[in-house]
Amino acid sequence: MATDYDAPRKTEDDSESIEALKERVPDKASGSIDNEDADNPSGFELPGADLSDIELDVVVLPAQEDEFTCMSCFLVKHRSQIAEESGPGFICLECAA
Hints:
By secondary structure, this protein is α+β, with helices and mostly antiparallel strands. It has a domain at 63-96. Helix content is 11%, strand content 13%. It has two helices and four strands, in the order H-E-E-E-E-H. The chain has helices spanning 18-24, 93-96, and strands at 67-69, 76-78, 82-85, 90-92. Strands 1-2 form a two-stranded antiparallel ribbon. The chain has a two-stranded antiparallel ribbon with strand order 3-4. The longest helix has 7 residues, at 18-24. The N and C termini lie far apart (60 Å). 2% of the residues are buried. This is DUF4193 domain-containing protein.
């Protein structure tokens, strides 16, 4: 049997009226605050903008027992990534390749 893909299809979920769907959608003119942009009211910053007056709170964890710092790329990696030991420290697999 051939299927007419252009014919409108009705399912059980299509029984809602347009008025019921409009009630479920939040009204943009209601004055509610969008929480997604509440912490960044100015939108986005352009590249090269002066950010010297902004303070960042960053928690720095010390190196763990199963980590090392590569002496070539200076990234902290897991000990399973050690390729070789150089004079002052270790070299990771990516830098040794």
